Amino acid sequence: MQEEYESAVINKRWDTKRECYVNRNGHPVVSKEDIIFDDVLLRMKKNVDEMVNDLKKVAEDAKVEAVKVEDVKIDEEDTVEERVVKKKLLQKNNKLKKLRNC
Questions:
Q1: pLDDT at residue 52 in the model
Q2: Rounded to an integer, what distance in angstroms lies between the CA atom of residue 19 and that of residue 34?
């Protein structure tokens, strides 16, 4: 173990601030014996749960947005129908006026 440590220090693979071995990119490296797999799995599960919750929020926001867009479309359709009805009423009123004037 001492030999590995000395080799790591010479090759600049030992980070004194974090007191751990690092790879070529400077990322911490942990030996397989030191890994506690239950903790790793627990963290992974927490991350997955967080991602699922985030996806649910995004899906819910998308549904709300779709409902809003649908409401706007319905409102637009209502205003278009109202315009059509008003035009028809105006046309009928104009025809009635013309008939009265004759």
A1: 92
A2: 14
**Cα gap 47→98, rounded to integer Å:** 76
Q: How many domains does the chain have?
A: 1
- By C-alpha distance, which of 43, 41, 32 is closest to 21? 32
Indicate the SS3 state at residue 31. coil
On whether residue 83 sits in a domain, the answer given is no
Question: Is 1 within 8 Å of 7 (Cβ atoms)?
Answer: no
Is the residue at 70 inside a domain? no
Strand pairing category for 20-22 and 28-29:
antiparallel
Tell me the pLDDT tens digit for each residue of 26-85.
Answer: 888 876 677 777 877 887 888 899 999 999 998 888 887 777 766 666 666 667 677 777
Q: What residues make up the domain containing 4?
A: 1-35
Give domain status of residue 59, yes or no: no
- With respect to residue 15, please indicate whether it lies within any of the assigned structural domains: yes
